[in-house]
Design a protein that fits this description.
The complex is a heterotrimer of chains A (366), B (288) and C (268).
Chain A lengths: L3 E9 L10 E10 L4 E5 L6 H9 L6 E6 L2 E2 L5 H4 L1 E4 L11 H11 L4 H14 L15 H13 L6 E5 L7 H18 L2 E6 L2 H7 L2 E6 L2 E6 L1 H6 L4 H6 L6 E8 L2 E4 L2 E4 L2 H9 L5 E5 L5 E3 L7 E10 L3 E8 L2 E8 L8 E5 L6 E4 L2 E3 L5
Parallel strand pairs in A: 3-8, 3-9, 6-7, 7-8
Antiparallel strand pairs in A: 1-2, 1-4, 4-5, 9-10, 11-12, 11-14, 12-13, 14-20, 15-19, 16-17, 16-19, 17-18, 20-21
Chain B lengths: L3 E2 L4 H26 L1 E5 L2 E4 L3 H8 L1 H31 L5 H11 L6 H12 L5 H8 L10 H29 L3 H9 L4 H29 L3 H6 L11 H11 L3 H32 L1
Antiparallel strand pairs in B: 2-3
Helix pairs in contact in B: 1-12, 2-12, 3-7, 3-9, 7-9, 9-12, 11-12
Chain C lengths: L2 H27 L3 H5 L12 H8 L1 H34 E2 L3 H12 L3 H14 L6 H25 L3 H9 L4 H12 L1 H17 L2 H5 L8 H5 L3 E2 L2 E2 L1 H32 L3
Helix pairs in contact in C: 1-13, 3-4, 3-13, 4-7, 4-10, 5-7, 7-10, 8-9, 10-13
Classes of the chains: A alpha+beta (366), B mainly alpha (288), C mainly alpha (268).
Chain lengths: 366, 288, 268
């Protein structure tokens, strides 16, 4: 059981990195609290597996420290850190039975055989592997194999954290949700810190209490799935979370706020202060398609849009709109009736976010 | 992979069939023909049935060399398979040093068999060979040309030198095919070095080891040139193996009939033992 | 001593064992016979190229190399030409008798060369091929073809069928597809097959010697004649031996990057 603290951690695969682009992990400070269920979410190549391997000890970070409960573990091997890890492709010992596979870590620690037996049966029951305990592990299906590799982490009493590296990649879709629920259940039962790497936002949101979203070697946001959805603090979070991603419109400064194509959006005083201080012209307004308000008639504060395309996704529709030359997506209910060519949209103020140099800025007033 | 039924594929295998038929079936038929006849010259051949087979099976020279042959192949497998695995485990895993190791290991495999014999003939001599000279100067009474035990030792050493590389290369490539995550998982499971070998590496080596054992059995069982050059089968007949006995009979004495019967029995033994190896190993896998 | 150091020491010791006899041969090839038969020296005291000069100036010597290279190349060419389509058939199709045929091919690899000595001699004599390079090349096919089919079949099974189907849909004829797409895809396999074919054909002596007398006599057989009236000419023998190692070295050099991958991907 442990709290995992990454202190000024950075990692580069080249020996003498000179540019930030040479870092797979850019310098970060991050704490995973004891007993939490976390997801490490990001597109492929963002450094999430590298980070996981640094935590487990398969990789030694080039800079900074990894602390378990405040103690530096940089130089400890995975086994000394008491970490269990489940890999993308199930790793099982082909020549052994399921029982021997589960007993393997215990036997390696010279645990008495009677205790091994008790523990293995206990875990097999939780993972619903009792029926195949005495089968050869080689002949199991992919999801059973993955359960066996998970089980090898769970049999040990001393495990401080279990790390999952995209564990459901090779599992059939209809079994994925079952395994995910199993994981959740195990987390509640054992109170172990779990870190789950995935590129699938749905997987991350259903498994984790808190998601760390990684992009280009940085953790760009760490928060609950809801926070990531409602208040993405980086444009990438907006793009990546949600389907379709957040709408972003490039805007320019103007008196009293920002504008594009003659439409002015007033900003709060707090935000205006920040805007006045930064020299950059990289300003974007963002709003989630779910929060774009669409109606058939013009109302106060609404703008006329051309409908370019309507995609019917069964329970809802995604409409692609043209607002004065900018493309915009909106999500509306299946049964909402809209005209064929033109609609009116408005943007509720609390969902309209301003991004400066890709990062969210917020006024003090909120 | 699912295969499509297509009898036109016969056209693709036809060249192989014709070629192998020409170089295998015709000669094999000739052998069968000889083995049941007593031939004096082209016009005087008598059908003798199984007589040559009876003769050959009771021939003490053949029985002796058959026993020697089995002992030899047994030792070859006993030494070369574990040693080959050990060498593969010790090899560097990547980079220029791995390439260099591969090249150096492969050298003995590509030396003509009689040159292998010559190398060891020279190397083992007590007057001009480093190996024999060193042993003699260490006070050992070593002479492969006169002492049967020394001769056996040298022939075996030569075979180990010559062929262990093949087992090592097979195992090396088998080891490279094991994904890194297996080692990572083992390290997380606190597996000892022995446990990693026993439960990860060895099971993954199984398929290449089957090939290694079969090739080494077959080739050691058919060995001819190397011991012939090194010891000439001697001293006495102590290192005369099956192929040499057969060649003496066929070419040396021109006993065509018995030699043909001998040939077929020889062939059958190789087939039978190879088949036994193969089925035992594949059954061992299924049984558990 | 840590684990890695132990491994390095172990492999170094083994490589030393592999190289020492070869070094001894090399060492001898640069010595005169007087030095060889005199006191044992670890390196040539009076370094000489005379032994090599003997080989390169005497056609009966150097033609041996030419002969050996000729039949080995012929054997490799024949083997690949017939084995490639056959391996493709075995890896892609089921046809009447396929399994039996495959097994029968493999059994030929288990036939002791000594068994075929006499019938080969008679067969090739009767068709007028005795003492030609082709005779040796064909005889060696008996062992190289089954092995080649086996190795190549392993590699081809690793190439997904979809590749073939896509090519046919794209309008490739079988020949074009096979030569332009498929063969480049199994490059490693062909490299390893060539390695093994070369290996068995180059090192084999029993059949090569039996099927030749003058015109196509392999170098290995010529080497057995170094003993003259004055005893064995050790220096020339060693030089000839060293020269037989060089073609092998070249072949390994060319396939070195395929060997590790090749041995594992295919079945051998």
């Amino acid at each position: 059981m442990a709290e995992i603290h990454l202190k000024k951690l950075a990692h580069s695969y080249s020996a003498n990195p000179k540019f930030t682009s040479e870092y797979a992990i850019r310098e970060m400070d991050h704490v995973w609290e004891q007993g939490g269920a976390y997801a490490l979410l990001g597109p492929s190549g963002c450094g999430k597996s590298t980070l996981l391997n640094i935590i487990s000890g398969l990789l030694s970070p080039s800079e900074g420290e990894v602390l378990f409960d405040g103690e530096r573990v940089n130089d400890l091997t995975p086994s000394q850190r008491n970490i269990a890890q489940v890999f993308q492709f199930p790793v099982i010992y082909d020549s052994m039975t399921v029982f021997d596979n589960l007993a393997f870590p215990l036997r390696n620690m010279k645990v008495p055989e009677s205790k091994v037996k008790k523990k293995v049966f206990e875990i097999a029951e939780i993972l619903e592997l009792q029926d195949v305990l005495h089968n050869k592990a080689k002949n199991l299906s992919a999801d059973e194999k993955q359960k066996v590799s998970m089980g090898r982490g769970l049999v040990r009493d001393d495990v401080s954290a279990i790390l999952f590296d995209e564990p459901l990649t090779v599992i059939d879709p209809h079994l994925k949700w079952k395994l995910r629920r199993k994981l959740k259940q195990i987390h509640e039962q054992f109170n172990i810190t779990m870190v789950y790497v995935t590129h699938d936002q749905l997987e991350a949101a259903t498994f984790a209490d808190k998601i760390a979203l990684m992009y280009d070697g940085n953790i760009v946001q760490f928060g609950t799935p809801r926070e990531l959805f409602e208040k993405p603090n980086h444009t990438f979070v907006g793009y990546f979370i949600g389907s379709p991603g957040m709408n972003f419109i490039e805007v320019a400064r103007c008196a009293g706020g920002v504008e594009f194509a003659g439409i002015t959006f007033p900003v709060d005083a707090g935000i205006q202060d920040i805007l006045d201080q930064v020299p950059t012209d990289n300003l974007k307004l963002g709003i989630r398609p779910e929060f774009v308000h669409v109606c058939a008639e013009s109302i106060e504060g609404s703008f006329e849009c051309d409908i370019k395309h309507i995609e019917d996704l069964g329970t809802y529709k995604i409409i692609t709109l043209d607002l004065k030359g900018r493309t915009l997506k909106a999500r509306i209910d299946e049964d909402q009736q809209i005209p064929e060519h033109k609609v009116y949209v408005s943007f509720p103020k609390q969902w309209l976010k301003l991004y400066v140099d890709e990062y969210l800025i917020e006024g003090d007033s909120e | 992979m699912k295969k499509v039924v297509n009898n036109k594929a016969w056209f693709l295998v036809l060249p192989v069939v014709v070629l192998v038929a020409f170089s295998a079936i015709i000669p094999l038929m000739t052998v069968v023909n000889y083995s049941v006849q007593d031939i004096f010259d082209v016009n005087n051949a008598y059908f003798v049935g199984a007589e040559w087979y009876r003769d050959i099976l009771q021939n003490p020279r053949l029985q002796d060399s058959l026993v020697r042959q089995f002992i030899f192949s047994f030792f070859v497998l006993l030494i070369e398979i574990p040693l080959g695995i050990a060498v593969a485990l010790m090899m560097p895993t990547k980079g220029a040093r791995a390439s260099l190791c591969l090249i150096l290991l492969a050298i003995p495999l590509l030396i003509p068999l009689n040159v292998v014999g010559t190398i060891w003939q020279v190397f083992g001599r007590t007057d001009i060979g480093l190996f024999g000279w060193t042993l003699t100067h260490l006070g050992m009474d070593y002479n492969y040309a006169s002492n049967p035990i020394d001769a056996w030792f040298t022939v075996l050493l030569m075979d180990v030198w010559h062929w262990t590389s093949l087992v090592a290369l097979l195992c090396y490539s088998g080891l490279r095919a094991i994904p890194d995550v297996y080692y990572q998982a083992a390290s997380i499971d606190r597996a000892s070095g022995w446990a990693i070998f026993r439960y990860i590496q060895l099971p993954k080596l199984q398929s290449v080891l089957v090939i290694g054992v079969l090739l080494r059995f077959m080739d050691s069982f058919m060995i001819y040139t190397e011991p012939f050059v090194l010891t000439g089968g001697g001293p006495g007949n102590s290192t005369t193996f099956l192929s040499q006995t057969l060649t003496q009979m066929a070419i040396g004495q021109f006993d065509v009939g018995p030699a043909a019967a001998f040939s077929l029995i020889y062939f059958l033994i190789v087939l039978l033992v190879s088949w036994l190896f193969f089925t035992t190993i594949s059954h061992m896998d299924k049984a558990k | 001593m840590n684990k890695q150091t132990k491994k390095n020491v172990g492999i170094s010791v083994y490589l030393f064992f592999v190289l020492l006899p070869i070094y001894w041969l090399l060492n001898m090839s640069f010595k005169s016979n007087e030095e060889i038969l005199g006191a044992l020296t670890l390196w040539p005291e009076s370094f000489t190229f005379d032994n090599y000069a003997v080989i390169f100036t005497d056609p009966t010597w150097y033609m041996g190399y030419v002969n050996s290279m000729t039949y080995v190349m012929m054997n490799m060419a024949i083997t690949l030409v017939v084995a490639l389509p056959a391996a493709y058939a075995f890896s892609r199709y089921r046809f009447i008798g396929d399994k039996h045929l495959f097994f029968w091919l493999l059994t030929n690899r288990m036939a002791p060369p000594a068994v075929f000595l006499l019938p080969f001699f008679q067969l090739y004599s009767s068709v007028g091929l005795f003492d030609t390079h082709l005779a040796v090349a064909l005889a060696h096919c008996l062992f190289s073809v089954p092995l080649a089919v086996w190795i190549l079949e392993g590699f081809m099974s690793g190439v997904p069928r979809e590749i073939d189907e896509t090519a046919y849909i794209d309008g490739y004829s079988f020949h074009k597809f096979f030569i332009k797409i498929f063969i480049p895809m199994i490059g490693s396999g062909i490299g390893v097959t060539a390695f093994f074919t070369f290996m068995f054909s180059w090192v084999e002596l029993l059949l090569a010697r039996t099927l030749t007398s003058v015109e196509a006599k392999p170098i290995a057989a010529i080497m057995t004649r170094t003993s003259g009236a004055t005893g064995i000419d050790w220096g020339v023998l060693a030089a000839a031996g060293v020269l037989t190692i060089i073609p092998g070295l070249l072949v390994v050099w060319f396939v070195r990057n395929h060997v590790a991958k090749g041995f594992a991907l295919g079945r051998v």
